[in-house]
Amino acid sequence: MSQAASSSTTGVVFSRQGNTRFSGYEDFCRQVTWQDTAQQLQLPRSNGVNKATLCIDEHPPEVMQRHALRWLATDGSREDYTFEDLKQLTNRFANVLTQLGVRPGDRVFVYLERIPELYVCLFGALKVQAVVGPLFSAFGPEAIQDRLADAGAVLVVTSPTLKPRLDAIADQLPALQHVVVVDRYQTWQPTHTENKRIQEHAYETLMNQASDVFTVPPTDPDTYSIMHYTSGTTGKPKGAVHRHLAVVAQAATTQHVLDIRPEQDVYWCTADPGWVTGTSYGMFGPWALGTTLVVYEGPFDADRWYQVIQDYQVTVWYTAPTAIRMLMKAGDARVKNYNLGSLRHLASVGEPLNPEAIHWGHQLFGKVFHDTWWQTETGAIHIANYPCLEVKPGSMGKPFPGVVAAVLDDTWNPLPAGEEGCLALRPEAPSIFRTYWQRDDLYQSRLKNGWYITGDRARVDEDGYFWFIGREDDVINTAGHLVGPFEVESALIEHPAVAEAGVIGKPDPERLEIIKAFVSLKVGYEPSEALKKEIQTFVRQRLAAHAYPREVEFIASLPKTRSGKIMRRLLKARELGLPEGDTSTLEE
Predict the structure, then answer these.
(1) Model pTM?
(2) How far is CA 205 from CA 208, 545, 552, in A?
């Protein structure tokens, strides 16, 4: 790959990376359609459109013997599973769910570490047409309560390590009937007491008793498949619900954005399955194409990550800007200790990718990271930098074929190139969400003048490239995780010392933003470093490791409107030294 000449209007750009399928972006858009991908996937099949059938069960015989999952545990142990192995295991779990009375449309949540059983349980639930809800293993009791209660979950799969957090809030989950515990060491035993409302089961016992033959029932393309919770400015997290047909867009973008060639590629998506990237591109898209996935159980570690790429000969790598910046921070010398020559295509997701990271990738790997833009609600990549497209560092790229994107003004009409406005999409892609669970009013409020309003601000340049500017609301993007300030504030004020709390996102060079909390204390409590740490730990244990305030500042009182609403805008302006704007509604 060669670096193209810079210009005064676009700056440095990187030329197309040797993609031979298309001569350029225009040719790409002419040749690729949703319908073509559906035909390539032979949809609909005899039982309609079911993600489990498509991703696991019905590959050609030679693909069924291919590695589907190559798993590396934190302790260094390894396990490999073929598509045929996963077919039998997911059939067993589908039979387990049927035996436990799970019915189509029931909500089944998976609250596990990144272990193979997570994938087995998720696809087994899809086979019985349950609506699956993946949860981050880092979530604390309050975070999982919000999601399980809202969804009316009837069954949760968890582990002995995570189960105590579930036990702490089980009494507040009236719909929950079954807890299945995956114990790889097989030392956990269920507790059986008379009249126990929630039944506990050992995963291994149930699986040993279940048949590995299961017939997936006919599945309508619009049947709900998976639900990911996402945060907003106010209120609790809301469940964005997707359908089985979403797999068409997930497969198309896996093939043409991530440039997957399943017969030869080994692919590593570093995203946790609790995040939409970890399902759309850590399961559905690549497995629909018959791709070998690498999954590493452990946390970020620069040397271990490079070792994974080297040992598994990873060819396509999809990761997050925060991880890239952490690799940069670890130093260039480490890269030279490993043979990373297998890498063919690099991509990133979750937050804007800064130009420095793109230049670093080019310098260290001889490849640039291709940034991609999408949301929990879109279910699949909608705007991206493609192998057939020149990369402008810092740009989101251009819309995927079949996606109509625009920057709108305040009356929901498209703006000309160069003007900043609201990023919007025509809600037509197969993957775009169908509703917010039990919040269709909120879903409808996101649709304006035939557009889905994303909540992001952007502009389009004269070449048709989109550039991300920021959020319309107060949602905080910390290391790729969207965190609603209301959720953190709600946890903060549960601490006995906290009277009021306001939360903002503060720019951070590594994580994009960190969470900062402004706290006023109740009478009888004095500010101290010890109290700061106590409050931080309190929130972290209730929500998640990524959702606690890394900075806490004690203030006498929070700025509020006369109606009592905390003015986060004013807190942020004062923190960053920005103009405060109109303060006429501020209480006296």
Answers:
(1) 0.86
(2) 5, 32, 47
